[in-house]
Protein: Heptahelical transmembrane protein 1-like
Amino acid sequence: MDVGVFFQRKPKKMDFHQTPRSHDVVSPQKAYKNKDDEGLDLHNHGTLHKGIKRYDLKSFWELPDHMKDNEFILNYYRVCWPLKEALFSIFRWHNETLNVWTHLIGFLLFLGLTMANIMQVPQIADLLCLFTRSILTSAEANFSHNSEELFLGTRELVDLKLITSSKTITPPVTTVTRWPFFVFLGGSMFCLLSSSICHLFSCHSRTLNIFLLRIDYVGITTMIITSFFPPIYYIFLCDSHWQYIYLGGITAMGMFTILTLLSPSLSTGKFRAFRALLFSSMGFFGMIPAVHGTIVNWTNPKRNTLLAYECSMALFYLVGTGFYVSRIPERFKPGWFDLAGHSHQIFHVFVVLGALAHYGATLVFLEYRDHVGC
Ligand SMILES: [Zn+2]
Structure:
């Protein structure tokens, strides 16, 4: 039985969570709705096809105010979907599908890297690192004048066997502690996973939308903070007071950012540029230990490789933030990039690339400290 006509009633413009007023006619469908799903007005959004409920995608103009974030994305919105439907919408095309998958794949990639490092399975680590190398090779080649040295450095980075077998490098003096490395991996995974969850479930309700957006921002901040741990820790391994100053400073700044972002009003689209400024300023703060570390580390034979990786990371993050703020390309052709190719998806990809570049740099730091010690 096709009862799709039951759901043709025009959505109310303002409040999708309004409880029915006393003069509303309570239809049999509403009675079904109430026992079905947490009081959400599903009948504005669902269609029944042969007994299977299928939720319709909406246009920008049909959205409740809290979902009107990007006016250049015109269609394919999920509105007030129940959690179960939102969960399974990961396998459906809508304007958040690629936002979910880009960071979910990034999360799985970092989970794999973490497991490989924990389990110390060099073969898996090498395989995953090959991906890192293929992304960064061109960026590195452009960066350094001494390309031969850089290439050798990169090969050493991704192929751990080269380090231990073919090169006549002195055996490790000691194995430097890994905890800053795992702090970075944990922070990256938290960011990527919370972002995926946010994009998947924020269509459920206004309350959940606001909560998940905050978690998403906390995730981004956590990733930025934790990214500083490996370079600062390993560069200033022999100078612990600089470790405390820089790690303390970036952690304090991150905590301030998190507290600021937890304010609900700052989660709205109006403050997009402000949020980007906060994130970027944390990044720029990192320039101080980066410049300091570069000077301290200038005689390190892996200097160019490290600079190439870290500059690639900065470039990826900056370009990604540029897309996020400018909402290019959808602003030039509203509606064309609703499903694929809009700015947020591009931003997500650059975030993963930036994290991978930083992962590569961290491996170089680890290898260097394992062999040189303090
Ligand atoms: Zn996102």
